[in-house]
Fold:
Amino acid sequence: MRVVTTAQPLDVTPSPLALLLLGREADPKSERGVECPGDLPAPSDPDLVARARAAKATLGDKVFVLGHHYQRDEVIEFADVTGDSFKLARDAAARPDAEYIVFCGVHFMAESADILTGDDQRVILPDLAAGCSMADMATAEQVAECWDVLTEAGVAERTVPVSYMNSSADIKAFTGKHGGTICTSSNAKRALEWAFAQREPSSTKVLFLPDQHLGRNTAVRDLGMSLDDCVVYNPHKPNGGLTTEELRAAKMILWRGHCSVHGRFSLQSVNDVRARIPGVNVLVHPECKHEVVAAADQVGSTEYIIKALEAAPAGSKWAIGTELNLVRRLANRFAPEGKEIVFLDRTVCFCSTMNRIDLPHLVWTLESLVAGKTVNRIEVDEETAHFAKLALERMLALP
Ligand code: SF4
Structure:
Protein backbone atom coordinates (compact mmCIF):
# COMPACT_ATOMS: atom_id res chain seq x y z
CA MET A 1 0.00 0.00 0.00
CA ARG A 2 1.32 3.42 -0.89
CA VAL A 3 0.97 5.95 1.88
CA VAL A 4 0.33 9.48 0.67
CA THR A 5 1.22 12.29 3.02
CA THR A 6 0.57 15.99 2.72
CA ALA A 7 3.83 17.89 2.53
CA GLN A 8 4.36 19.89 5.74
CA PRO A 9 6.91 22.68 6.01
CA LEU A 10 9.84 21.36 8.02
CA ASP A 11 10.50 23.02 11.32
CA VAL A 12 14.22 23.52 11.08
CA THR A 13 14.59 25.80 14.09
CA PRO A 14 17.17 24.00 16.23
CA SER A 15 16.29 23.52 19.87
CA PRO A 16 18.69 24.94 22.49
CA LEU A 17 19.80 21.36 23.21
CA ALA A 18 20.59 20.69 19.57
CA LEU A 19 22.61 23.90 19.48
CA LEU A 20 24.47 22.79 22.56
CA LEU A 21 25.26 19.40 21.09
CA LEU A 22 26.58 21.08 18.00
CA GLY A 23 28.84 23.13 20.20
CA ARG A 24 27.43 26.51 19.29
CA GLU A 25 25.97 27.58 22.59
CA ALA A 26 28.31 28.78 25.30
CA ASP A 27 27.79 26.67 28.39
CA PRO A 28 30.61 27.13 30.84
CA LYS A 29 29.15 24.39 33.06
CA SER A 30 29.38 21.85 30.28
CA GLU A 31 32.30 19.89 28.90
CA ARG A 32 30.77 20.38 25.47
CA GLY A 33 32.21 23.86 25.22
CA VAL A 34 31.62 26.24 22.36
CA GLU A 35 32.59 26.62 18.75
CA CYS A 36 35.97 28.12 17.88
CA PRO A 37 35.95 31.66 16.67
CA GLY A 38 38.20 32.55 13.73
CA ASP A 39 38.96 31.07 10.33
CA LEU A 40 40.37 27.58 10.40
CA PRO A 41 42.48 26.39 7.49
CA ALA A 42 40.67 23.88 5.28
CA PRO A 43 41.34 20.22 6.20
CA SER A 44 42.27 19.62 2.57
CA ASP A 45 45.07 22.24 2.65
CA PRO A 46 48.14 20.28 1.52
CA ASP A 47 50.41 22.74 3.36
CA LEU A 48 48.98 22.07 6.82
CA VAL A 49 51.89 19.92 7.97
CA ALA A 50 54.44 22.50 6.79
CA ARG A 51 52.43 25.31 8.41
CA ALA A 52 52.25 23.48 11.74
CA ARG A 53 56.00 22.77 11.63
CA ALA A 54 56.84 26.38 10.78
CA ALA A 55 54.61 27.85 13.51
CA LYS A 56 55.96 25.44 16.12
CA ALA A 57 59.55 26.21 15.12
CA THR A 58 58.89 29.95 15.38
CA LEU A 59 57.42 29.57 18.86
CA GLY A 60 60.32 27.34 19.99
CA ASP A 61 60.47 26.68 23.76
CA LYS A 62 57.63 29.13 24.39
CA VAL A 63 55.13 26.43 23.39
CA PHE A 64 54.72 22.93 24.80
CA VAL A 65 52.30 20.65 22.95
CA LEU A 66 50.70 17.78 24.87
CA GLY A 67 49.06 14.89 23.01
CA HIS A 68 46.67 12.49 24.70
CA HIS A 69 46.98 8.84 23.62
CA TYR A 70 43.53 8.97 21.99
CA GLN A 71 44.41 11.81 19.62
CA ARG A 72 44.67 11.40 15.85
CA ASP A 73 48.07 10.55 14.32
CA GLU A 74 48.15 13.89 12.47
CA VAL A 75 48.02 15.68 15.85
CA ILE A 76 50.30 13.28 17.77
CA GLU A 77 52.98 14.04 15.19
CA PHE A 78 53.32 17.53 16.70
CA ALA A 79 53.13 16.54 20.37
CA ASP A 80 56.23 17.16 22.50
CA VAL A 81 54.99 14.48 24.90
CA THR A 82 52.19 11.90 24.81
CA GLY A 83 50.42 10.21 27.68
CA ASP A 84 47.23 9.80 29.65
CA SER A 85 45.49 12.79 31.20
CA PHE A 86 47.35 12.71 34.49
CA LYS A 87 50.80 12.17 33.02
CA LEU A 88 50.21 15.08 30.65
CA ALA A 89 49.10 17.42 33.46
CA ARG A 90 52.28 16.52 35.37
CA ASP A 91 54.39 16.98 32.24
CA ALA A 92 52.88 20.44 31.82
CA ALA A 93 53.64 21.31 35.46
CA ALA A 94 57.25 20.23 34.89
CA ARG A 95 57.69 22.87 32.16
CA PRO A 96 57.29 26.19 34.02
CA ASP A 97 59.32 27.93 31.31
CA ALA A 98 56.72 27.22 28.61
CA GLU A 99 54.49 30.25 28.16
CA TYR A 100 51.84 28.33 26.21
CA ILE A 101 50.64 24.81 26.94
CA VAL A 102 48.66 23.56 23.93
CA PHE A 103 46.62 20.64 25.23
CA CYS A 104 45.56 18.23 22.49
CA GLY A 105 43.02 16.32 24.55
CA VAL A 106 39.66 17.25 26.05
CA HIS A 107 38.38 20.09 28.23
CA PHE A 108 38.74 18.54 31.70
CA MET A 109 42.38 17.68 30.92
CA ALA A 110 43.16 21.27 30.00
CA GLU A 111 41.47 22.40 33.23
CA SER A 112 43.69 20.07 35.27
CA ALA A 113 46.75 21.39 33.44
CA ASP A 114 45.68 24.96 34.26
CA ILE A 115 45.25 24.03 37.93
CA LEU A 116 48.71 22.44 38.11
CA THR A 117 50.66 25.02 36.11
CA GLY A 118 51.80 28.54 37.05
CA ASP A 119 49.58 31.63 36.83
CA ASP A 120 51.73 33.07 34.07
CA GLN A 121 51.30 30.00 31.85
CA ARG A 122 48.42 29.85 29.40
CA VAL A 123 46.69 26.55 28.75
CA ILE A 124 45.00 26.30 25.37
CA LEU A 125 42.52 23.76 23.99
CA PRO A 126 42.64 23.91 20.16
CA ASP A 127 38.88 23.23 19.86
CA LEU A 128 36.61 24.25 22.73
CA ALA A 129 34.03 21.70 21.62
CA ALA A 130 36.43 18.91 22.64
CA GLY A 131 34.62 17.93 25.82
CA CYS A 132 33.99 14.57 27.49
CA SER A 133 30.57 12.95 27.66
CA MET A 134 31.52 11.13 30.86
CA ALA A 135 32.59 14.32 32.64
CA ASP A 136 29.30 15.90 31.52
CA MET A 137 27.35 13.19 33.35
CA ALA A 138 28.10 14.77 36.75
CA THR A 139 27.39 18.47 37.16
CA ALA A 140 28.19 20.51 40.27
CA GLU A 141 24.46 21.01 40.98
CA GLN A 142 23.68 17.30 40.71
CA VAL A 143 26.56 16.34 42.98
CA ALA A 144 25.58 18.97 45.58
CA GLU A 145 22.05 17.53 45.53
CA CYS A 146 23.44 14.02 45.97
CA TRP A 147 25.40 15.19 49.02
CA ASP A 148 22.15 16.57 50.47
CA VAL A 149 20.54 13.16 49.94
CA LEU A 150 23.46 11.47 51.73
CA THR A 151 23.20 14.01 54.55
CA GLU A 152 19.45 13.34 54.91
CA ALA A 153 20.16 9.61 55.04
CA GLY A 154 22.73 10.26 57.80
CA VAL A 155 25.66 8.83 55.85
CA ALA A 156 27.46 11.94 54.52
CA GLU A 157 29.83 12.21 57.48
CA ARG A 158 30.93 8.62 56.85
CA THR A 159 31.35 9.13 53.10
CA VAL A 160 34.60 10.03 51.32
CA PRO A 161 34.30 11.25 47.71
CA VAL A 162 36.74 9.77 45.20
CA SER A 163 36.57 11.36 41.75
CA TYR A 164 38.08 10.08 38.59
CA MET A 165 40.46 12.41 36.79
CA ASN A 166 37.85 12.47 34.00
CA SER A 167 35.64 15.02 35.73
CA SER A 168 35.20 18.77 35.55
CA ALA A 169 37.17 21.15 37.78
CA ASP A 170 33.91 21.78 39.71
CA ILE A 171 33.65 18.11 40.66
CA LYS A 172 37.32 17.98 41.61
CA ALA A 173 36.74 21.04 43.81
CA PHE A 174 33.71 19.38 45.47
CA THR A 175 35.93 16.37 46.15
CA GLY A 176 38.68 18.51 47.67
CA LYS A 177 36.21 20.40 49.86
CA HIS A 178 34.72 17.20 51.26
CA GLY A 179 38.01 15.53 52.18
CA GLY A 180 38.27 13.30 49.11
CA THR A 181 40.84 12.54 46.48
CA ILE A 182 41.16 12.28 42.72
CA CYS A 183 42.19 9.00 41.11
CA THR A 184 43.27 7.76 37.70
CA SER A 185 42.69 4.34 36.19
CA SER A 186 46.25 3.48 37.31
CA ASN A 187 45.89 4.36 40.98
CA ALA A 188 42.15 3.79 41.65
CA LYS A 189 42.91 0.85 43.97
CA ARG A 190 45.28 2.94 46.11
CA ALA A 191 42.79 5.82 46.14
CA LEU A 192 40.00 3.56 47.44
CA GLU A 193 42.26 2.00 50.07
CA TRP A 194 43.21 5.50 51.21
CA ALA A 195 39.56 6.60 51.30
CA PHE A 196 38.42 3.63 53.37
CA ALA A 197 41.23 4.33 55.85
CA GLN A 198 39.99 7.91 56.45
CA ARG A 199 37.09 6.99 58.74
CA GLU A 200 35.99 4.05 60.87
CA PRO A 201 36.76 1.18 58.40
CA SER A 202 33.59 -0.85 59.06
CA SER A 203 31.21 2.02 58.32
CA THR A 204 33.09 4.10 55.72
CA LYS A 205 31.53 4.64 52.32
CA VAL A 206 32.94 5.99 49.11
CA LEU A 207 31.01 8.18 46.70
CA PHE A 208 32.72 7.37 43.40
CA LEU A 209 32.35 9.95 40.60
CA PRO A 210 31.58 9.96 37.70
CA ASP A 211 32.47 6.56 36.17
CA GLN A 212 30.44 3.74 37.70
CA HIS A 213 32.45 1.09 35.84
CA LEU A 214 35.89 2.12 37.10
CA GLY A 215 34.45 2.36 40.64
CA ARG A 216 32.76 -1.03 40.49
CA ASN A 217 35.65 -2.81 38.78
CA THR A 218 38.16 -1.49 41.30
CA ALA A 219 36.00 -2.29 44.32
CA VAL A 220 35.19 -5.82 43.19
CA ARG A 221 38.40 -6.88 41.39
CA ASP A 222 40.98 -5.14 43.54
CA LEU A 223 39.37 -4.73 46.95
CA GLY A 224 37.40 -7.99 47.02
CA MET A 225 33.99 -6.39 47.56
CA SER A 226 30.84 -7.98 46.21
CA LEU A 227 28.59 -6.46 43.57
CA ASP A 228 25.98 -6.12 46.34
CA ASP A 229 28.31 -3.75 48.21
CA CYS A 230 27.85 -1.29 45.34
CA VAL A 231 24.76 0.82 44.58
CA VAL A 232 24.27 3.19 41.65
CA TYR A 233 23.14 6.75 42.32
CA ASN A 234 21.08 8.01 39.39
CA PRO A 235 21.07 11.84 39.39
CA HIS A 236 17.95 11.85 37.22
CA LYS A 237 15.80 10.10 39.84
CA PRO A 238 14.53 11.45 43.17
CA ASN A 239 17.03 10.52 45.91
CA GLY A 240 19.21 8.97 43.24
CA GLY A 241 16.69 6.13 42.88
CA LEU A 242 17.89 4.68 46.20
CA THR A 243 16.21 4.09 49.53
CA THR A 244 17.77 5.25 52.80
CA GLU A 245 18.35 1.60 53.70
CA GLU A 246 20.19 0.95 50.44
CA LEU A 247 22.41 3.99 51.01
CA ARG A 248 23.16 2.93 54.58
CA ALA A 249 24.02 -0.64 53.58
CA ALA A 250 26.27 0.26 50.60
CA LYS A 251 30.05 0.52 50.77
CA MET A 252 30.40 2.03 47.31
CA ILE A 253 27.95 4.64 46.04
CA LEU A 254 28.66 4.74 42.31
CA TRP A 255 27.64 7.74 40.26
CA ARG A 256 25.64 6.73 37.19
CA GLY A 257 28.18 7.84 34.58
CA HIS A 258 30.15 6.00 31.96
CA CYS A 259 32.49 6.48 29.02
CA SER A 260 30.62 6.36 25.73
CA VAL A 261 33.63 4.73 24.03
CA HIS A 262 34.56 2.03 26.57
CA GLY A 263 30.90 1.44 27.45
CA ARG A 264 30.33 0.08 23.94
CA PHE A 265 32.36 -3.10 24.45
CA SER A 266 30.19 -6.06 25.43
CA LEU A 267 30.60 -9.65 26.54
CA GLN A 268 29.59 -10.54 22.99
CA SER A 269 32.63 -8.59 21.65
CA VAL A 270 34.90 -10.70 23.89
CA ASN A 271 33.26 -14.00 22.87
CA ASP A 272 33.34 -13.04 19.17
CA VAL A 273 37.02 -12.16 19.15
CA ARG A 274 37.95 -15.37 21.00
CA ALA A 275 36.04 -17.38 18.37
CA ARG A 276 37.61 -15.39 15.52
CA ILE A 277 41.22 -15.41 16.75
CA PRO A 278 42.15 -18.58 18.65
CA GLY A 279 44.67 -17.93 21.43
CA VAL A 280 43.99 -14.17 21.52
CA ASN A 281 44.72 -12.24 24.74
CA VAL A 282 41.91 -9.88 25.61
CA LEU A 283 43.19 -6.71 27.31
CA VAL A 284 40.67 -4.02 28.29
CA HIS A 285 40.53 -0.66 30.05
CA PRO A 286 38.79 -0.58 33.48
CA GLU A 287 36.22 1.93 32.13
CA CYS A 288 34.62 -1.10 30.41
CA LYS A 289 31.53 -2.76 31.90
CA HIS A 290 32.12 -5.25 34.72
CA GLU A 291 31.08 -8.26 32.63
CA VAL A 292 33.66 -7.30 29.96
CA VAL A 293 36.40 -6.83 32.53
CA ALA A 294 35.48 -10.16 34.18
CA ALA A 295 35.78 -11.97 30.83
CA ALA A 296 39.09 -10.32 29.83
CA ASP A 297 42.55 -11.80 30.38
CA GLN A 298 44.05 -8.53 31.55
CA VAL A 299 42.74 -5.15 32.64
CA GLY A 300 44.63 -1.88 32.83
CA SER A 301 45.00 1.82 32.06
CA THR A 302 46.25 3.08 28.70
CA GLU A 303 49.80 3.24 30.11
CA TYR A 304 49.42 -0.38 31.30
CA ILE A 305 48.15 -1.45 27.87
CA ILE A 306 51.15 0.13 26.12
CA LYS A 307 53.62 -1.51 28.52
CA ALA A 308 51.92 -4.92 28.22
CA LEU A 309 52.20 -4.78 24.42
CA GLU A 310 55.82 -3.64 24.59
CA ALA A 311 56.61 -6.68 26.76
CA ALA A 312 54.53 -9.14 24.68
CA PRO A 313 56.42 -11.88 22.85
CA ALA A 314 56.59 -11.99 19.05
CA GLY A 315 53.77 -14.06 17.59
CA SER A 316 51.31 -13.16 20.36
CA LYS A 317 47.79 -12.00 19.51
CA TRP A 318 45.90 -9.24 21.29
CA ALA A 319 42.39 -7.79 21.22
CA ILE A 320 42.39 -4.39 22.90
CA GLY A 321 39.35 -2.73 24.45
CA THR A 322 40.16 0.96 24.41
CA GLU A 323 39.95 3.96 22.05
CA LEU A 324 40.56 3.17 18.40
CA ASN A 325 43.21 5.81 17.58
CA LEU A 326 45.49 4.31 20.23
CA VAL A 327 44.78 0.69 19.23
CA ARG A 328 45.47 1.43 15.58
CA ARG A 329 48.73 3.21 16.40
CA LEU A 330 49.85 0.31 18.62
CA ALA A 331 48.90 -2.24 15.93
CA ASN A 332 51.07 -0.39 13.38
CA ARG A 333 53.92 0.06 15.84
CA PHE A 334 54.12 -3.59 16.89
CA ALA A 335 53.29 -5.29 13.57
CA PRO A 336 56.99 -5.37 12.48
CA GLU A 337 57.73 -7.27 15.73
CA GLY A 338 55.22 -9.96 14.74
CA LYS A 339 52.56 -8.98 17.31
CA GLU A 340 49.00 -9.12 16.03
CA ILE A 341 46.84 -6.42 17.60
CA VAL A 342 43.15 -5.90 16.82
CA PHE A 343 40.38 -3.65 18.14
CA LEU A 344 38.10 -5.60 20.48
CA ASP A 345 34.87 -4.64 18.74
CA ARG A 346 33.93 -5.08 15.09
CA THR A 347 32.27 -1.65 15.11
CA VAL A 348 34.69 1.22 14.68
CA CYS A 349 34.42 3.71 17.51
CA PHE A 350 36.60 6.74 18.07
CA CYS A 351 36.12 9.16 20.93
CA SER A 352 34.23 11.78 18.93
CA THR A 353 35.14 14.66 21.23
CA MET A 354 38.85 13.77 21.26
CA ASN A 355 38.65 13.74 17.48
CA ARG A 356 37.48 17.35 17.45
CA ILE A 357 41.14 18.29 17.73
CA ASP A 358 42.53 18.00 14.23
CA LEU A 359 45.35 19.49 12.21
CA PRO A 360 43.40 22.59 11.05
CA HIS A 361 42.59 23.48 14.68
CA LEU A 362 46.18 22.89 15.75
CA VAL A 363 47.55 25.02 12.90
CA TRP A 364 45.05 27.78 13.72
CA THR A 365 46.08 27.69 17.40
CA LEU A 366 49.82 27.77 16.69
CA GLU A 367 49.60 30.44 13.99
CA SER A 368 47.42 32.61 16.26
CA LEU A 369 50.11 32.37 18.96
CA VAL A 370 52.77 33.35 16.43
CA ALA A 371 50.60 36.37 15.58
CA GLY A 372 50.51 37.30 19.29
CA LYS A 373 46.92 36.16 19.89
CA THR A 374 46.00 33.56 22.50
CA VAL A 375 42.91 31.65 21.44
CA ASN A 376 40.76 29.19 23.39
CA ARG A 377 42.45 29.74 26.73
CA ILE A 378 41.20 27.47 29.54
CA GLU A 379 41.14 29.16 32.92
CA VAL A 380 39.78 27.75 36.16
CA ASP A 381 38.65 30.35 38.70
CA GLU A 382 40.74 30.76 41.83
CA GLU A 383 38.39 29.18 44.38
CA THR A 384 37.59 26.16 42.22
CA ALA A 385 41.28 25.73 41.42
CA HIS A 386 42.19 25.91 45.13
CA PHE A 387 39.88 23.07 46.21
CA ALA A 388 40.48 20.99 43.07
CA LYS A 389 44.21 21.25 43.72
CA LEU A 390 43.67 19.99 47.29
CA ALA A 391 42.07 16.83 45.86
CA LEU A 392 44.79 16.47 43.23
CA GLU A 393 47.51 16.88 45.86
CA ARG A 394 45.92 14.15 47.98
CA MET A 395 46.22 11.90 44.95
CA LEU A 396 49.88 12.86 44.46
CA ALA A 397 50.52 11.95 48.10
CA LEU A 398 48.91 8.50 47.81
CA PRO A 399 51.28 5.77 48.96
S1 SF4 B 1 37.30 8.27 25.77
FE1 SF4 B 1 35.52 8.41 27.15
S2 SF4 B 1 36.30 9.27 29.09
FE2 SF4 B 1 37.87 9.66 27.46
S3 SF4 B 1 37.36 11.72 26.71
FE3 SF4 B 1 36.29 10.24 25.35
S4 SF4 B 1 34.22 10.06 26.32
FE4 SF4 B 1 35.57 11.01 27.83
Q: What stands out?
A: The chain has three domains: 48-131+354-380, 135-258, 262-343. Residues 70, 106, 132-134, 166, 259-261, 323, 351, 353-354 surround iron/sulfur cluster (CB under 6 Å).
